[in-house]
Structures are given as structure tokens and as C-alpha cells.
Design goal:
The structure holds two protein chains of two kinds. Chain A is built from eight helices and six strands, in the order αααββαβαβαβαβα. By secondary structure, chain A is of the alpha/beta class. In chain A, the strands form two sheets. Chain A has a four-stranded parallel sheet. A two-stranded antiparallel sheet of chain A has the order 1-2. In chain A, β1 (54-55) and β2 form a beta hairpin. The longest helix of chain A is centred in the N-terminal third of the chain and has 17 residues, at 36-52. Chain B is α+β, with helices and mostly antiparallel strands. Chain B has two domains: 3-78, OB fold (Dihydrolipoamide Acetyltransferase, E2P), CATH 2.40.50; 130-150 and 164-240, no CATH class. In chain B, 34% of the residues lie in helices and 22% in strands. Chain B has a five-stranded mixed barrel with strand order 1-2-3-5-4. A three-stranded antiparallel sheet of chain B has the order 7-6-8, with no helix packed on it. Chain B starts with a strand and ends with a helix. The chains are: A alpha/beta, B alpha+beta. Chains A and B meet through α7 and α8 of A and α1 and α6 of B. Residues 154, 156-157, 159, 175-176, 178-179 of chain B line the site of one zinc ion (ZN).
Chain lengths: 197, 244
């Protein structure tokens, strides 16, 4: 018989995505064997992430203060705004180290088959923050699937009449990729989105 | 375990666990199937870009125990990429696939419905299918599913619908004025709407004016949700984004 506290920890860990019963057990034993501070710090970190992290009041990314680091950073370009589906997408764009503008996180995409409409996304908030007239260009960086495309097209309809420059991130072949092994959909898209040289 | 090849239209997809995806397909020969696509979310190779609503595919399927089948490989037959660049066309295509998904049961072959949907998607992609054609598509799809609303005669007495017709979804169509006492939910509709819908049912392709289209949309929404037991989700989307 395993002690109840251990069972409870295993049960909680097993609820995490990608963690099965076996892995949960391994993690639980690891925590049990580790020095006492580790368990304290882990539990504190878990509690703090829930207590302190919330949505940025301007761009709806994550922050532990009123405005997030991207909104507070005065060196970032105010004229360009990149619209993403999720915070994870924002982080992916940040990893490129190429983008120096601001962000807006929608927290989802339009999903006709799931009944997700414009009101369930942070679209109203996007329009509100454009009121100050500082933004000149919007980059739509939703995923290249039918829902991401529908969202980008819907936003374009709203944003174009405001006199903003609206662009969509390019879609096509991966860098260093091999044409021969590219999948049909990507290759078809790359062909139709070809550019003149 | 049996393996077969078929043509399929993707009706909807659902992420499953961390790496996999469940895909609802309308196949030409095997009807509607829910197929398990292992690794579809992680591996970019095997299914990349193909498992999206309203893709037309050649699929290789392996039958498994239970009602779900396994998707072995896919080949895109038509991506309808032009339609994917226009919000109104996306909205109509998704409405069409949702309707087909709700009108069919697993493993019941509907080759005519498959052909109808494939043909409709091809016309959307060719920019030849406006809002009226969606109504025409719906009427044909309903007919294939044995749910044909009746517009040519009173659903109760079989007589002429007359000058002041009603529509009653539970009786399956038009109701004449004298019969309307027996049809409690019947609502009055303009005779022009009745004749317009009848013309679409008979295969005429004359576009309806926007007011009649809006009335027809409302009427079909009520009819479809009455017979399916729920409202289609993509219909709300069309209304929310101001399209038909
Ligand atoms: Zn922010
Ligand atoms: Zn009658």
C-alpha cells in the first residue's frame, strides 16, 4: 500500500498533459527524494503562477503587473501591432528576434463549427486600443488553417476601413526544406503566394 | 483488418490528446466515418495541411474494432484554396459540411450526397456559388436525407397553398389558410417566398432578392433545427459576421 499523500500527488501529476500514470509516479518519487527546499519552491511556484499571473490590460498577453513587458518597453515600435491567437504564438514570434513591434493576443480563433464567434475573442479590445491612432500597420499572425484564415479575413474587413495597413504572415515552404518532400497543401500555397523578383 | 481506399470530404476535425486528431469524413462509398489520424498534430509529413474542413481527399483507411476507423494515408484531390481566401465562401463551405455531418449517420453510404457536396464546394471555389445557391444546396441535401420540405402543396390537405400560405416545420412545409387551425406553429409567409423556394427545389438557379433570402434562411433554420433537434453552429457564425 502506497501512502495516501503520495497517491494524491501522483493523481494530480497524472492530470498534466502528456503525463501518464507511470511518468506521474516517477515525478512523484523524484519530488519525494529531492531536498526539502525543492518541494517548497515547486509548490510556491505553482501557487504564485495562479495568484500573480494575469492578462495584460492592453495586449492580453501574460504579465504579473498591470501592463506586460512588451507594452512597457519604450524601445518597441508603437506603429506596428502583431495579432496572434495565443500567448504561445507570441513567444514563438519573440524567439525569431526579428520583430520589434507590439502584440495583441486574441485568445482563440473564430471557429464556425465550434460556435466561436467574434465576441468570444479579444477583438473588441483590439479595436478599442487602436483609437489612440498610434498604430499604422497590423500583422495578422493567426495559424494557416481554415479557422486562422477566417479570423484573419474577418479582422481585415474590420481594420482596412480604418485606414490601417494590414498584412498577413507569409505561408509556404520551410527554410532549408526540400521541395521534393514538401506536402501538397504547403507546396500549393507556396506556388499561389509566389512573389515576383 | 480490412483496408480500403475511398474518396472523402473532410467534415470536421477534433484534436485528440497531445499528438493525434479525430477526423470526420464523408466518404463516397462508405458514408460518414470518424477516422483516427495518429500523429496528425505533431508529424508534419503524413497528413500536413490535409486534415482541414472541406478538403477533398483520397484516403486509405484501415477498419478497426469499434466504429472508429484508422486513417492510414491521404492524398489531396482538391484543396479548394480559392474558397479559403474569402470569408463568405469559407462560411458557406463550413455551413455545407456541418449540414452534411448532421444529416448523416456513420457507415451509411450516401454517394449522391457526397457528389452534391463535392460539386457545391467546387462551384464555391470557382466563385460561381452565391448566397442563393447555398439555399439550393440545403434543399438538395435535405432531399437526399429524406427531409424534403414541401412548398408546392399544403402539407396537410395536399391542396394549393393559396394566396395566404403558412409554413409549419413540424408538418414539413407549406400549409394552406383553411388548414392552419390544425398547424399550431404555422407562421404566415409571403407567397413569393414559397414560389422562390419551389423554384430552387425544381433546379432553377435564379438568385433571390436579399429580403426573400433572409426569410428563406430563417425558415430553413427553423425547419432544420426542428428535424435535427439542434441548431447548426455555423449558421450563427454567418449571422455574426454579417454574411449569408
Ligand atoms: Zn501587454
Ligand atoms: Zn391545406
Amino acid at each position: 500500500m502506497t501512502p495516501d499523500p503520495l497517491n494524491r500527488l501522483v493523481a494530480q501529476l497524472a492530470k498534466l498533459p502528456g503525463i501518464g500514470e507511470k511518468t506521474a509516479q516517477r515525478l512523484a518519487f523524484h519530488i519525494l527524494r529531492a531536498p526539502g527546499e525543492y518541494a517548497v519552491e515547486l509548490s510556491q511556484a505553482i501557487r504564485e503562477v495562479k495568484e500573480k499571473v494575469h492578462l495584460c490590460a492592453r495586449c492580453y498577453s501574460l504579465t504579473d503587473s498591470e501592463l506586460c513587458g512588451f507594452c512597457r518597453d519604450a524601445r518597441r515600435e508603437e506603429k506596428v501591432l502583431c495579432v496572434v491567437e495565443t500567448f504561445a504564438d507570441l513567444m514563438a514570434l519573440e524567439r525569431t528576434r526579428e520583430y520589434r513591434g507590439r502584440y495583441h493576443v486574441l485568445h482563440g480563433v473564430l471557429s464556425p463549427l465550434e460556435g466561436v464567434g467574434p465576441e468570444q475573442l479579444r477583438i473588441k479590445e483590439l479595436l478599442e486600443r487602436l483609437n489612440d491612432g498610434k498604430v499604422e500597420e497590423i500583422i495578422l499572425a493567426t495559424n494557416p488553417d481554415v479557422e486562422g484564415e477566417a479570423t484573419a479575413l474577418y479582422l481585415t474587413r474590420l481594420l482596412k476601413p480604418l485606414g490601417l495597413r494590414v498584412s498577413r504572415i507569409a505561408q509556404g515552404l520551410p527554410m532549408g526544406g526540400d521541395l521534393e518532400y514538401a506536402d501538397q497543401a504547403t507546396l500549393a500555397k507556396a506556388l499561389s503566394a509566389r512573389r515576383e523578383l | 483488418m480490412e483496408r480500403f481506399v475511398d474518396e472523402a470530404l473532410v467534415l470536421s476535425t477534433m484534436d485528440y490528446g497531445e499528438a493525434d486528431r479525430l477526423v470526420t469524413l464523408l466518404t463516397r462509398e462508405h458514408g460518414k466515418l470518424t477516422a483516427f489520424a495518429a500523429g496528425a498534430r505533431k508529424s508534419k509529413r503524413r497528413f500536413a495541411g490535409a486534415l482541414e474542413p472541406f478538403m477533398r481527399l483520397r484516403v486509405q483507411i484501415v477498419e478497426t474494432r469499434g466504429s472508429t476507423v484508422r486513417l492510414d494515408s491521404v492524398d489531396i484531390a482538391a484543396g479548394y484554396y480559392t474558397a479559403r481566401q474569402d470569408l463568405a465562401l469559407i462560411a458557406r463551405a463550413l455551413y455545407a459540411v456541418e449540414l452534411c455531418r448532421e444529416l448523416t449517420r456513420d457507415h451509411e453510404p450516401h454517394p449522391e450526397l457526397f457528389a452534391l457536396l463535392a460539386e457545391y464546394l467546387a462551384r464555391l471555389d470557382a466563385k460561381e456559388a452565391g448566397p442563393t445557391s447555398l439555399l439550393a444546396f440545403e434543399l438538395s441535401a435535405l432531399a437526399h436525407a429524406g427531409l424534403m420540405p414541401r412548398f408546392d402543396a399544403c402539407a396537410l390537405c395536399g391542396g394549393e397553398p393559396g394566396e395566404r400560405p403558412r409554413f409549419d416545420q413540424s408538418h414539413g412545409g407549406a400549409v394552406c389558410e383553411p388548414c392552419c387551425g390544425r398547424a399550431r406553429d404555422a407562421v404566415a409567409i409571403p407567397p413569393a417566398l414559397l414560389s422562390g423556394l419551389r423554384a430552387l427545389q425544381e433546379g432553377h438557379r435564379t438568385p433571390l432578392p436579399p429580403e426573400l433570402r433572409a426569410r428563406a434562411r430563417g425558415l430553413l433554420n427553423v425547419f432544420i433545427s426542428h428535424h435535427l433537434g439542434r441548431r447548426l453552429k455555423s449558421v450563427d457564425f454567418m449571422a455574426q459576421v454579417g454574411l449569408d
